[in-house]
Design a protein that fits this description.
It is built from 18 helices and six strands. The protein is an alpha+beta fold. It folds into three domains: 3-86, Gyrase A, domain 2 (2-Layer Sandwich), CATH 3.30.1360; 107-273, no CATH class; 283-453. The strands form two sheets. A four-stranded antiparallel β-sheet has the order 1-2-4-3. A hairpin with a 2-residue loop joins strand 3 (53-57) and strand 4.
C-alpha cells in the first residue's frame, strides 16, 4: 500500500485541503472536520485500497484505516500542514449546531478529541501497575525498593497529570493555546492546591469568600469544560486587546481568568457531576449486573461501528479515576475476546487467501485491544458472523456481571490481563474470573461462528 498516494486520495475525496478544518487520528481511524460535508465522496473513499470503511458521525468524517493509520496520518499531516493549523484559533472555530443532534455531535466530538490522545498512555500505565502488583504478590520485587518505586511512579505519572494531558488535547479541539491550558491544568495538580484539598478544611479564601477545593489529580472533565470556556475567552480577548500588547497580555489574562473560574466554579461543579455519573453507573450495574453486562457486551460493537463509543470511554476513565475500578471496562474487555473468537473462526474456516490474512491480522489486533480491523474487516461484511459474536458476547457479558468482574486498569483484552489484578489485595478471585469470562467468550464465539455463522464461498479463493 502506497501510504502517500492513499493520503493524497483521501484528502482529495474529503473535499480537498480547503474543505478540511482539522484532522486527527485515533488507534485505527483518520478523523476529519470539514467545512462542507456535501463535498465528501464517501463511496469513493471506501473503494480505496487500504481503507476498511468510512463513517460519518460526531461531526466528523471518519476513515477507518486499521493499524497503519499513524503512517497514513503523517502523510495527511504533511499535505495539510497540520501543525500550523493546530495552533490556528481561526481555523478551529467551534461548530455552530442547528439542532439537538448537532449539539450532541459537537459534544461527542469534543469528548473524543479530548480523550483519544491519552488513551494509549493510560492503557500502558495500567498494564505496568498490574504487572508490578503481580510481581510484588509473588515476592519477586519488594514494594519498598527503589526499583519498584521508580517503575510504579512512571506508570502512575500519566494518571496524576491527566488534567494536563486532557487540557492540551482539549485545547486543540476548542481553538485555545495548549500552553495556556497546560498552565491552568498545572495549577490543579500543583502541590499547594493538592495540599489544601487534602487538608481538613479543604477551603481556599478568595476575595473574602471561602471556596471548597477538590483534589483534581486523575480528573477528566474539568479541563474539557475549561478548554471549551477558554476557546470563547481567547477569541474575545484577541478582539479587544490591542495588537501591540496582545502576545504578552492575552496569555496572562487567559491563565488568570481560567484558573480562577476552574478553582471557584467549573472544577467543583463538574467534579460533582462526574462523581454523580460514576456513582450512577455503579448503582446501575449493581442493580442488575447480569443484564447490564449482557446488554453492554452485546451492543457495544454497534457503537464502535458508528464512532459513538468514545463518550463511554470517557466515562470509563472517569470511573477508574474516581472509584479505582470499572465494571464497564471489564465488560469491554470480555467482548473483545468474543469478537476475536468469531473472527478467528473465519480465519480458520475460509479458503479465501485475502480474507484469511485479514482475519488472522484482525484476531491478533483484537486480543491486543484494538477492535476496528475485526469489526470493519469482518463483522460488518458478514452479518451472520456478527450475529453469532453478539450472542456469545451477550452470554459472556452476563457471566461477567454475575461474577462481578472488575477492571482496575484501562487496558483490556489478553494484553490487559494485569488490569484485573487487584492493586491492593493482589491476585484474587477476580483474576480467575477474568480468565473464565474471557476464554469463555472466545471459545463460545469461535464455536458458534464456525458452526453457524460463516459459510465459505467456493470459487472465491485467491
Amino acid at each position: 500500500m502506497d501510504k502517500k498516494q492513499l493520503a493524497q486520495d483521501i484528502v482529495r475525496l474529503v473535499g480537498g485541503k480547503e474543505n478540511i478544518d482539522n484532522a486527527l487520528h485515533c488507534i485505527t481511524r483518520l478523523r476529519f472536520y470539514v467545512h462542507d460535508e456535501t463535498l465528501v465522496q464517501a463511496n469513493e473513499i471506501e473503494k480505496l485500497e487500504g481503507v476498511l470503511s468510512f463513517i460519518k458521525g460526531n461531526g466528523q468524517q471518519q476513515v477507518v484505516i486499521g493499524n497503519q493509520v499513524g503512517e497514513v496520518f503523517n502523510e495527511v499531516a504533511g499535505i495539510l500542514n497540520i501543525e500550523n493549523k493546530a495552533q490556528s484559533t481561526e481555523e478551529l472555530k467551534p461548530e455552530t449546531p442547528k439542532s439537538f443532534v448537532g449539539y450532541l455531535n459537537v459534544l461527542v466530538g469534543a469528548l473524543t478529541a479530548s480523550i483519544q490522545p491519552v488513551v494509549g498512555l493510560l492503557a500502558g500505565g495500567g498494564i505496568i501497575i498490574g504487572l508490578m502488583t503481580a510481581l510484588s504478590t509473588f515476592g519477586w520485587i519488594a514494594t519498598d525498593s527503589d526499583l519498584y518505586m521508580f517503575i510504579d511512579t512512571v506508570a502512575r505519572a500519566s494518571f496524576h497529570y491527566l488534567p494536563v494531558l486532557i487540557g492540551i488535547a482539549a485545547a486543540k479541539r476548542f481553538g485555545v493555546s495548549p500552553y495556556v491550558m497546560a498552565a491552568v491544568a498545572g495549577l490543579l495538580v500543583h502541590p499547594t492546591i493538592t495540599t489544601i484539598a487534602d487538608s481538613e478544611a479543604g477551603l481556599i479564601n478568595l476575595f473574602g469568600i471561602n471556596f471548597g477545593v477538590t483534589n483534581y489529580t486523575y480528573s477528566v472533565f474539568p479541563m474539557i469544560v475549561a478548554a471549551w470556556v477558554g476557546g470563547y475567552l481567547d477569541r474575545y480577548l484577541n478582539k479587544v486587546v490591542p495588537n501591540v500588547i496582545k502576545s504578552l497580555v492575552v496569555p496572562v489574562l487567559e491563565v488568570l481568568i481560567l484558573s480562577l473560574l476552574v478553582i471557584t466554579i467549573v472544577g467543583p461543579v463538574i467534579t460533582l457531576i462526574a462523581s454523580g455519573i460514576a456513582y450512577g453507573i455503579e448503582v446501575g450495574f449493581a442493580f442488575s449486573p447480569i443484564i447490564g453486562g449482557a446488554l453492554y457486551a452485546a451492543f457495544f460493537p454497534l457503537l464502535v461501528m458508528f464512532g459513538m463509543h468514545w463518550p463511554l470511554i470517557t466515562l470509563i476513565v472517569n470511573d477508574l479515576t474516581i472509584t479505582g475500578y470499572s465494571m464497564m471496562n471489564a465488560f469491554s474487555s470480555v467482548l473483545m475476546l468474543g469478537i476475536a473468537g468469531g473472527v478467528f473462526a473465519v480465519a480458520i474456516k475460509t479458503s479465501q487467501l485475502k480474507l484469511k490474512q485479514i482475519s488472522f491480522a484482525a484476531t491478533l489486533s483484537q486480543v491486543c485491544g484494538v477492535g476496528e480491523p475485526a469489526i470493519f474487516g469482518v463483522l460488518v461484511k458478514y452479518k451472520k458472523v456478527f450475529y453469532m459474536v453478539t450472542i456469545a458476547n451477550f452470554i459472556a457479558g452476563g457471566l461477567a456481571g454475575a461474577l462481578n468482574l472488575l477492571s482496575y486498569g484501562f487496558a483490556g483484552g489478553l494484553v490487559g490481563f494485569a488490569s484485573f489484578i487487584d492493586p491492593v489485595n493482589g491476585i484474587t478471585a477476580n483474576f480467575t474470573n477474568y480468565w473464565i469470562t474471557h476464554l469463555g467468550a472466545f471459545v463460545l464465539a469461535f464455536i458458534l461462528t464456525y458452526l453457524f455463522g460463516f459459510k465459505d464461498e467456493k470459487g472465491l479463493a485467491d
